[in-house]
């Protein structure tokens, strides 16, 4: 057999250990959260979550760590008895506000002195508290709390919840287009409000008592900012535009002293989000999208002049999307952005028009400026879980500050990670990561598992993915390939958007060309190949099922099977653009890329996995796909989670997920 040389770059070498990684190992790894620096920049607070597999639950604990690797070891600040998170230092650095949740309860606001003493509970709200921030003078703490529409006080919300608990009727009734999200019915009426807790009087005051706007449902924290003088709040509020039948986020301001919110961007076409005041308080910087039907439309940074009430572009010609932006003391704007399958740190100094890359390699998250011209963040890659790091904002050496995950991986063997670029569909350059099995031997052929990411406008990034771990897929003795097909993010707007209206065409060809390349290299046994994917990746699994028989088996998690069923999804805005048409005007175009229309070609054994609470890709997709396979006589297995959404998040369920996936692969590929 002729063997083609495969040009590749080794990113991370193999790591020796006593055994390959398992699902139990993955759940033993502490999950390190966003670092929060102290005002003087000498310390940081970070939430570290660990999981108890017997209790099938996790708890967060806040640790204090020095911002220099020479400053000593981190120390636990909060009790292991409760789950604590969202630390916020007081302006003088002497106290820490945070949220704490007792078992079975809602998170409430707490306050702890850092020189010793017990934490004091500040709130007892019916739906809990989140995202505390201090007023600049230290006199109060602003935080979020949910209330129920029509019952917009804590007392009225509590009464309404008690009434609902006793009511035998649990029906949801609506005429709204947008009535549920992810795993939650929006018809129950919960909306976030921002409250002020006055430290001296211990009194609470609702800062937006009449508001019915939502915050980001996936992560409501980080959606507001305080002006430097503490007199105003800016926040991103989600509204439904009845006239246009669109959901969009707008930027609002509200006086801290009291008053009605003001919408600063009422006429903008799509989402405006994450307002941040400049250090001098003269302006608000926010992110703006132009296309309400393309969720991956790149974000442009805008500047709102508060005195002139004018919106002007700050960074609108850049082809990447800024994320998690924040101002440093000197007015430099620091932010994250996906690029080339990674997430890097960038800085934009006052007056500059081109961002400067500060940290590159692996994937950063939780980027936060610290005193003294430094930034702190978590950094991870395919071979290393997240840990806290720091770097000079001007650029320079990245310093690792924590080692919370070392003990969990001490005896675990990990595979070498490589990167390959190749010619994909229509001659375009495509990138993929390759994870080799522990103990890989050059010249030997291995089974292949092609892992297709979801989205489709997302990435198989250089991250230690806990739910879809490339290392866990490679552990039994497989080569795991993670193709960033056309349609993926981090390569600019055109690369992401070019698959609109033809979801399967280029991505399918990209995955097939990657498979051809690996077979031609001699690394892969062509008779032992499988493919796995979730969400859009699951859509691609069903498409592959109907268009090739080259794989021995398929794993389809929460996959789109019938494009028409996506009208039952939580978000139907933009479906016509992504699918090629509307049900009443473009059915032929939809069917051209609808996997369910190609069942005639189904022959490959498939493992189908789905969660009942999945409102993004409703469970009927999985049940229909499984039913067609069984009726046609194709070997199939169904794993149904009654208590999971689009993702499998509970430890015991996740361990079962990995066990079923590995058993299915072993059944058809061997190990």
Automatic annotation (TrEMBL):
Q: Does the keyword Nucleotide-binding apply?
A: no
Record bears the keyword Cytoplasm: no
Q: Which domain of life is it from?
A: Bacteria
The entry lists its GO molecular-function terms as: serine-type endopeptidase activity
Q: Which PROSITE patterns match?
A: PRO_ENDOPEP_SER
- All copies of domain Peptidase S9 prolyl oligopeptidase catalytic, residue ranges: 465-670
What is the protein name stated in its UniProt record? Acyl-peptide hydrolase
Which keywords does this Swiss-Prot/TrEMBL entry list?
Acetylation, Hydrolase, Protease, Serine protease, Signal
InterPro entries per UniProt = 6-blade_b-propeller_TolB-like, AB_hydrolase_fold, Pept_S9_AS, Peptidase_S9_cat, WD40
Bias (Low complexity) ranges: 79-91
- Region entry Disordered: which residue ranges? 64-91
User: What's a BP term from Gene Ontology annotated to this protein?
Assistant: proteolysis
Role description: This enzyme catalyzes the hydrolysis of the N-terminal peptide bond of an N-acetylated peptide to generate an N-acetylated amino acid and a peptide with a free N-terminus. It preferentially cleaves off Ac-Ala, Ac-Met and Ac-Ser. Also, involved in the degradation of oxidized and glycated proteins.
**Similarity comment:** Belongs to the peptidase S9C family.
């Amino acid at each position: 057999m002729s063997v083609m040389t495969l040009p590749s770059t080794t990113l991370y070498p193999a790591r020796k250990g006593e055994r390959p990684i398992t699902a139990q190992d993955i759940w033993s790894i502490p999950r390190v959260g966003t670092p929060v620096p102290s005002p003087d920049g000498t310390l940081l607070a970070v939430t570290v979550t660990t999981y108890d597999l017997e209790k099938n639950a996790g708890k967060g604990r806040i640790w204090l760590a020095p911002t220099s690797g020479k400053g000593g070891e981190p120390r636990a600040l909060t009790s292991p008895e409760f789950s604590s998170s969202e630390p916020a230092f007081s302006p003088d650095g002497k106290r820490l506000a945070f949220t704490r949740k007792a078992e079975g309860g809602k998170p409430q606001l707490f306050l702890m002195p850092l020189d010793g003493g017990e934490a004091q509970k500040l709130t007892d709200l019916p739906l809990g508290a989140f995202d505390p921030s201090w007023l600049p003078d230290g006199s109060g703490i602003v935080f979020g709390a949910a209330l129920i529409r029509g019952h917009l006080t804590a007392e009225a919300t509590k009464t309404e919840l008690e009434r609902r608990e006793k009511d035998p009727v649990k029906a949801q009734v609506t005429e709204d287009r947008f009535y549920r999200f992810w795993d939650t019915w929006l018809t129950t009426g919960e909306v976030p409000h921002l409250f002020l807790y006055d430290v001296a009087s211990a009194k609470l005051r609702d800062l937006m008592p009449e508001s019915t706007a939502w915050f980001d449902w996936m992560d409501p924290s980080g959606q507001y900012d305080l002006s430097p003088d503490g007199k105003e709040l800016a926040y991103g509020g989600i509204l439904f535009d009845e006239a246009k039948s669109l959901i969009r986020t707008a930027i609002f301001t509200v006086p801290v002293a009291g008053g009605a919110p003001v919408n600063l961007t009422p006429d903008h076409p799509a989402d405006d989000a994450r307002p941040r005041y400049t250090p001098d308080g003269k302006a608000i910087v926010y992110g703006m999208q132009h296309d309400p039907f393309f969720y991956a439309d790149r974000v442009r940074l805008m500047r709102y002049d508060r005195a002139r009430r004018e919106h002007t572009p700050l960074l609108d010609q850049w082809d990447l999307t800024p994320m998690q932006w924040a101002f440093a003391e000197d007015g430099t704007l620091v932010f994250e952005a996906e690029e080339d399958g990674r997430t890097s740190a960038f800085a934009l100094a006052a007056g500059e028009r081109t961002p400067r890359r500060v940290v590159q390699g692996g994937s950063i998250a939780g980027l936060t400026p610290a005193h003294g011209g430094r930034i702190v963040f978590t950094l991870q890659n395919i071979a290393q879980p997240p840990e806290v790091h720091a770097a000079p904002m001007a650029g320079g050496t990245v310093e690792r500050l924590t080692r919370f995950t070392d003990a969990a991986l001490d005896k675990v063997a990990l595979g070498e990670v490589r990167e390959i670029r190749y010619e994909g569909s229509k001659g375009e350059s495509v990138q993929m990561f390759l994870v080799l099995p522990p103990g890989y031997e050059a010249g030997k052929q291995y089974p292949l598992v092609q892992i297709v990411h979801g989205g489709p406008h997302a990435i198989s990034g250089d991250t230690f993915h806990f739910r879809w771990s490339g290392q866990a897929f490679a552990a039994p003795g497989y080569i795991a390939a993670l193709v960033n097909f056309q349609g993926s993010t981090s390569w600019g707007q055109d690369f992401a958007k070019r698959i609109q209206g033809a979801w399967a065409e280029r991505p399918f060809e990209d995955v097939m060309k990657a498979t051809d390349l690996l077979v031609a290299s001699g690394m892969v046994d062509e008779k032992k190949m499988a493919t796995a994917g979730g969400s859009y990746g699951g859509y691609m699994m069903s498409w592959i099922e109907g268009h090739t028989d080259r794989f021995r088996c398929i794993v389809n998690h929460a996959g789109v099977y019938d494009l028409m069923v996506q009208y039952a999804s939580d978000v139907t805005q933009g479906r016509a653009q992504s699918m090629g048409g509307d049900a009443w005007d473009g059915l032929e175009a939809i069917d051209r890329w609808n996997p369910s229309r190609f069942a005639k070609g189904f022959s490959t054994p498939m493992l189908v996995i789905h969660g009942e609470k999945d409102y993004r890709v409703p469970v009927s997709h999985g049940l229909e796909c499984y039913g067609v396979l069984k009726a046609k006589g194709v070997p199939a297995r169904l794993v149904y989670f009654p208590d999971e959404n689009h993702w499998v998040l509970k430890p015991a369920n996740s361990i079962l997920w990995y066990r079923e996936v590995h058993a299915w692969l072993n059944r058809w590929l061997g190990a």
